[in-house]
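Reopening: structure tokens for the beta-D-galactopyranose complex, inputs below.
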Amino acid sequence: MNRIINGEVGEFYQWTDEEGNVMNVSDGGMIYVDGRYYWYGQKLRALPYAGEGRGGQTTVEGVVMYSSVDLYHWRYERVVLACSEDPDSLCFGPMRFERPKIVFNRKTGQYVLWCHYVKYPGDHGEQPGTAEAAVAVCDKVNGEYRLLKVCRPVDDRGLVRDSTVFQDIDGTAYFLYDRQVGQDRCLYIVKLTDDYLGFSGEYTRIEAAYWREAPCLVLYDGYYYMITSGLSGWAPNQAVYFRTGDLMGEWENMGDPCEDDLCGTTYGAQGTYIFRVENTDLCIFMAERHNTDDFEKCSYVWLPICFGADHTLKLTYRREWQQEDYR
Ligand code: GAL
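Re-run output (same inputs, fresh job):
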């Protein structure tokens, strides 16, 4: 049956691939190439939350990818960014390739993956290596990505927390992240270089998005929208979205996009990405219910975004739905 099934709010409904295996594709994104959608994310461990590298919030395998032609049936592709068993490698697991995002660079012909990187044993922290950005490349969407470097966007003081990448229609790409210096946490948008492999030096602190994370961006009818979460670790909280006509300019706080969200928790989920279904107006908000008892059993919540004539957006919960009804 062709349905996107989110289950009940609070339920960890399990999405499965075409072989019936549970999909474990945490906090990732989507890219469309030659008639196929590629969904990728971090493969978390089947363990509860715990520190010192013992927790399921880390990976020992890396970033995995699935593909589909219709967004309903998913075929497992492979590990695209692999952990290493070599203790000297930057990819030695358990570690974290959090919130990976892939964009295609038309000028270089390369697929570029950015993520929030945390080295072995995978605990977020203040120490070098525990709050970084990382970039990897590949000449095929579903090939083996090569980690190029681990770095910090604005300066070495600012720790990198949640991040995303946004590619504008003119081909410019941006790295957005929650930058932390002491108690100061704010979302920053940093323009990438033309090859997408580094930072251009041009950036803006998004003042309106103070103390926000999990940024998800979309361009629709001349406006950029960014849905974010608050900071409560793995526990879900209320979403707030922002709007601007100029990515590097001022953003406006537009409030909670969720309708009838009785617990004020984004329906028990946290955003991971927004993508547009090819040749339609349908934009899908991808979110995740983090399962701190067993990270392999996180679940996914996909909702159609409803844009208003007054340049607003909203989300309404659906236990299950069909894309064809919203195109
Ligand atoms: C969340 C964040 C996740 C992860 C988690 C653990 O709020 O969005 O990506 O970092 O905290 O600290």
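The first strand starts at residue 4 and ends at 5. The two ends are 18 Å apart (CA to CA). Marking as resolved unless the reporter disagrees.
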